[in-house]
Amino acid sequence: MYVAPLNAPPVTKAEFGFNEHHQNEVINYMRFARSKRLLRLKTIDSCFEELKDSRLSDETFTVDEVREMLDGLQAVVRGEVEMELINTAHTNVLLLRQLFSQAEKFYLRLQSDISELENRELLEQVAEFEKTDFKTADKINQETSKPKLAPLNEGGVSELLNKEITRLQEENDKLKARLRTIESQAMSALDEKSKAERALKDIKKTQGEQQLTAKSQEISSLEDTVAALREDYERTLSANAVSQKDLQENLISSKHELLRVQEQLAMAEKELDKKFQQTAAYRNMKEILTKKNEQIKDIRKRLQRYEPNE
């Protein structure tokens, strides 16, 4: 037999870890089990009383008669105990059926540890609970109706599904808001890129116009010089035919000078273009365009991550 330790603490409701509702359910089941147990014990007692009243009227019995009476009593008691054990097992199955049905409504999977059913320490706690708190609870619940397992409807499942749908909708709204923010950032980056490109074009256009103006002024000056030389040449030719050769040479040299100046202008244009590319404004604009292109590539990758099919 199991003997409880002498210094064992008293058993309280908290040791079972139940809330008030489940505590009442345990009490109701123990009340039901006790009533069935008492009824079966009364039946066994009646078997002995019946034997006493029907067979023990004589004063002397033979050994065979005593053996016959004990065998008959054994058969009756054995049948009653076996019936009670079978009924208790079936009753426990029905109780588990109710619990599992309620759990499956909420898509839960309950598990049981069969080895704990033979834990002597826990069995002693249950026995102590039946002697103390169970009796107190009987007095409190005498005037109250016995609660039964509340039938489940689809409300619990619908509530869980509604909560899950609400949570998914909130996450979807957050993702949409984040996507809108990323799209606005992408549009801002594209606008800044367009502005930078236009500014770079304007700078190039301004520099080009300035260079063209300078070249045009030089060409105009050279053209004026050539025109003046022609006029001088014509006057000199008409006035003095002897100086015609000198004028032609001067004209040729002027043309060579014009070609040399044009070549210098072309070289100066290339040099100005090279210097412009080396200016801080050109480098800054080029760096800005490079950074904007990298930002746009990064934003496109992030958009592809949230909307891969688009």
From TrEMBL:
Residues 158-302 form a coiled coil. One of its GO terms (biological process) is negative regulation of protein localization to cilium. It comes from Collichthys lucidus. This is Leucine zipper transcription factor-like protein 1. Regulates ciliary localization of the BBSome complex. Together with the BBSome complex, controls SMO ciliary trafficking and contributes to the sonic hedgehog (SHH) pathway regulation. May play a role in neurite outgrowth. May have tumor suppressor function. It comes from the Eukaryota. Pfam families: Leu_zip. Self-associates. Interacts with BBS9; the interaction mediates the association of LZTL1 with the BBsome complex and regulates BBSome ciliary trafficking. One of its GO terms (cellular component) is cytoplasm. Keywords: Coiled coil, Cytoplasm. It is found in: Cytoplasm. Belongs to the LZTFL1 family.
